[in-house]
Amino acid sequence: MQSSITVRHAVHYTQSETMTGSALRENFLIEELFSAGGANAVYTHYDRLLLIGVMPDRAAISLGEDMARVVGGEFLLERRELGLINIGGPGIVRTDDAVFEIGFQDALYLGMGTRSISFESADPSAPAKFYINSAPAHAAFPARQIRKAEAIELNLGDGQTSNKRTLYQYIHPDVVESCQLLMGMTRLEPGSVWNTMPAHTHDRRMEAYLYFEVPKDAFVVHLMGRPEATGHLIVRDEQAVISPPWSVHCGAGTSAYAFIWSMAGDNKSFKDMDFVPMGDIR
């Protein structure tokens, strides 16, 4: 198994506003999470969120000592919780005492104290792609599989403003209990390209976006930074963006796409947002 773990330190907005485009990418864009037969992880100092991409082929992949070492535990979820959404072929997750069959765009929550976690693809020729987020936890909650049909579905936006989209809430207080992790998915309708508009911030928690189903010859322009001093990232398929609490997180693509959003921080109120008037974006 090939694996990699990198660490991203927190950046003050005054620093980010002096960065070149390549420096913004180095600090806030994760260009490769999925590699065949591998597990790639980024540990960010923003609310200590850990982002992992696992893509098993013929052999199972376990999150072992190297991951535990980064978070300072005997095992990864000693003092953490974990959520994942599968964006690939059917997969299997094995834990201490359970086996979960995770289909396309199904999710799984694992609580603090889960010691053994391994990942498999049901069909190596159509490998699963487990996008995983892990955050610190203070209490243990039961594991729960959430199928796409069980997620809360919200229809948002309008074709007239090019942002008609469907939002799915998977790890959410009305679906499954967690300590602080929130996780879900948004899909843009054909002809719509804008996400998260009007833009907002939430200084009480950070967020991360994994963009996927971005066509090969397309990209997303992701806006970040303080509302009055935005920068941008060019994001390709299956790349992720780390969004600090002080930053807006919105964007537009050259075609429709989907993305997985996740949050960690002080609360689990999805509606706790500080909206930015459109005229204040600079």
UniProtKB/TrEMBL annotation:
EC number of the protein: 5.3.1.17
Enzyme class: isomerase
Cell cycle listed as a keyword: no
Cofactor note: Binds 1 zinc ion per subunit.
Reactions listed under catalytic activity: 5-dehydro-4-deoxy-D-glucuronate = 3-deoxy-D-glycero-2,5-hexodiulosonate
Record has Transcription regulation as a keyword: no
A Pfam cross-reference name: KduI
Cofactors (names): Zn(2+)
Similarity comment: Belongs to the KduI family.
NCBIfam families, per the entry: PRK00924.1
PANTHER family linked: 4-DEOXY-L-THREO-5-HEXOSULOSE-URONATE KETOL-ISOMERASE (PTHR38461:SF1)
Function: Catalyzes the isomerization of 5-dehydro-4-deoxy-D-glucuronate to 3-deoxy-D-glycero-2,5-hexodiulosonate.
Protein's UniProt name: 4-deoxy-L-threo-5-hexosulose-uronate ketol-isomerase
Record gene name: kduI
